[in-house]
Amino acid sequence: MKKIQINKIRCIFAASLAVVTAVFLNGCGILLEDRTFALSLSVDYKEGEYLVWYGISDLYDEVSEKEESGEVNEKSETELKGISMEEARNKFLSSQENELDMGHLKALILGKGILKDQIAYEGLLNHLEAQPAVASNVSVFFCNEIEALMKTERQQEIPLGVYLTKKPKNQSKKTVFPPVKLQELYRLWYNQKKQPSLPEIKILQEKIVVQNKPEK
Length: 216
Fold this sequence. Notes:
By secondary structure, the chain is an alpha/beta fold.
């Protein structure tokens, strides 16, 4: 009887191991050169639709090292619209040959519309939280003119996602503010239905500058 139970346990263990192995291989089976990396994500909400911009890079060699050195070529795709984040994301995927990789996301930029609409805001948080690759320590910013930011971003050499999180020169010398992380948005919203004050991105003399956002 014990022998039968042991064999049964072995079978269950073997089956479980096979499932885990299959999932692991499936997730890791996509080659780096077959991935499109999102370094920044900008989101706004207007007239019942999400407006989404992915700041992407077709990296496939020494990703982390190139990010640190600023040798990454990031480009922001054209504005995507959808009644949900999933719809906007699917539109983006349909225009790409490669798999979208959110594991190197560095900056999340939110517009006024998404911050004012509570349902849309929660929909965004739910969408991001459902993606295991999106780290909770992604830095979050506010920008009142995302379209202008996208135009300026295309003219600068340093990728937006890297610039916002790695370059102290983009901050005012008079103010030093702690970064706001995505995990703080989760915590405040799901526990208190509140939003943190976010560092604000502005375009000054055709340059991207980060300032403290006034307290609400």
